[in-house]
Write a structure and sequence with these properties.
about 20% strand; about 425 residues; globular; alpha/beta; about 30% helix; binds pyridoxal-5'-phosphate; nine-stranded mixed sheet
Length: about 425
């Protein structure tokens, strides 16, 4: 079974004339259409906002596209906060959902007016010590513990995850924040990752909505926003049924009407913090076959490696591969498609049925738009690749240059300790 690519062979042949492989390529049209679909799916909720999870893809050109559709950003670190601030996101458009947070990041988040979403009960006192008065708006992250099951069998284990407050802690947390004069309250939870289903958000919404009713009864705190966070999955495999954001939005609306509206909470804003769903399908890693090896298995070596896309190496994640121009050829070879790292996990595919690959063929590694470039690293002295945006009219634009040896050496040779190393 095949997956469609958003780029043609001719377009790739054009792009490689000025950007050598490997590079990450993004589909502007796809990003825009999906952003519109997300806004429409939640248009029943006037205060809805998607806070794009910057860690999924911190490229400012791409974040600016989402900004046009009213998206905010969800940040987990100082640099992500700095980037959001510099891109002109105003306080309420920046969410700071971090954990194990260094003090200076809380101080900076408060300074730029980001909404702070606390991960831990002890952070209430910690934050107060750091910044004095609490901001007017505060959010707390909930972890129900145990296992979290969806009706289609997807399960995750929040009881084993480091994030969030227990139920007792969160109720006490709202009580304290109310006493301390906080005016606007939010709640957040992220329980299942890459949930390729239309049930996850509605199920999570019910958990959170019912908890918010209980919090109101027990503490008098009425939630202003409920943040369903990220976790909506994408169909990495060609035979998977993709999640349908319109069905998801309608599912959340139904639970909202059932649980919140009768409790007089029909004015609560719904927020999301999707990363993967906003970007993964609209990016791919373009690489070239540079080596073939026939030993106990058949290997194809490409010029990208796990330093460009880490998911297969660290989670055994499936990323579909298209050999450009051979989409319809019989997939009668079984290859391990590998990068050059001195780590045997550096394999984009294992025993993958593919058409016969010749040296110089371009390979498209699909769904790399989120948690792709951003997870990159420099192991083996490999340099981060370029990022290219394919515009709607078919032209392309370099939106991040590739790293050079100079970048790699800069952090020590700014002292000039090795004369002649950095030219
Ligand atoms: C990673 C993360 C997200 C985005 O998750 P996706 O699976 O990419 O949608 C959102 N919120 C928080 C707090 C995260 O850590």
């Amino acid at each position: 079974m095949q997956k469609k690519t958003f780029v043609t062979k001719e377009q790739i042949e054009e792009i490689v004339k000025d950007v050598p492989t490997p590079f990450h390529l993004y589909d502007e049209k796809g990003i825009r259409e999906n952003a519109v679909a997300v806004q429409e799916a939640f248009s029943w909720n006037p205060g809805f906002r998607e806070y794009f999870a910057v860690k999924a893809n911190p490229n400012p050109f791409l974040i600016r596209i989402l900004q046009e559709y009213g998206c905010g950003t969800d940040c987990s670190s100082m640099t992500e906060l700095m980037l959001s601030d510099a891109l002109g996101f105003k306080g309420g458009e920046i969410m700071f959902s971090s954990n194990d947070t260094p003090p200076e990041e809380f101080v900076y988040a408060a300074k730029i007016g980001a909404t702070i979403n606390l991960d831990d009960f002890t952070h209430i006192a910690y934050l107060e010590d750091l910044i004095g008065d609490f901001p007017e708006t505060m959010s707390l992250r909930f972890n129900p513990g145990g296992f979290y099951r969806l009706s289609n069998g997807i399960m995750d284990n929040p009881g084993d995850s480091k994030y969030g407050f227990t139920k007792e802690q969160i109720i006490e947390g709202y009580r304290i924040l109310k006493e301390k004069g906080v005016k606007r309250f939010g709640i957040h939870a992220f329980l299942v990752s890459n949930a390729v289903t239309n049930d996850y958000y509605p199920t999570l919404a019910r958990t959170l909505f019912e908890l918010c009713v209980e919090i109101k009864e027990k503490t008098g705190v009425k939630m202003d926003f409920i943040n369903l966070s990220g976790g909506v999955g994408v169909a990495y495999r060609p035979d998977e049924e993709p999640a349908d954001i319109r069905v998801i939005g309608a599912g959340v609306q139904k639970v909202y009407n059932e649980v919140l509206v009768p409790e007089g909470m029909g004015d609560v804003d719904i927020y999301t913090e999707m990363g993967r769903f906003m970007m993964a399908p609209y990016g791919c890693l373009v690489t070239q076959a540079i080596h073939e090896k026939h030993t106990y298995k058949e290997y194809i070596g490409v010029d990208a490696c796990a330093a460009n896309l880490m998911r297969p190496a660290i989670y055994g994640a499936y990323h579909h591969i298209t050999v450009v121009g051979k989409e319809d050829a019989p997939h009668d070879h079984h290859y391990d498609v590998v990068g050059s790292l001195c780590e045997n996990c550096d394999k984009f595919a294992i025993d993958r049925p593919l058409p016969e690959i010749e040296m110089g063929d371009y390979l498209i590694i699909h769904d790399a738009g989120a948690h792709g470039f951003s997870m990159g690293y420099n192991y083996n002295g490999r340099l981060r690749s370029a990022e290219v945006l394919l515009h709607e009219d078919g032209t392309h634009e370099l939106i991040r240059r590739a790293e050079t040896p100079r970048d790699y050496f800069a952090t020590f040779d700014c002292f000039g300790i090795i004369p002649g190393l950095v030219k």
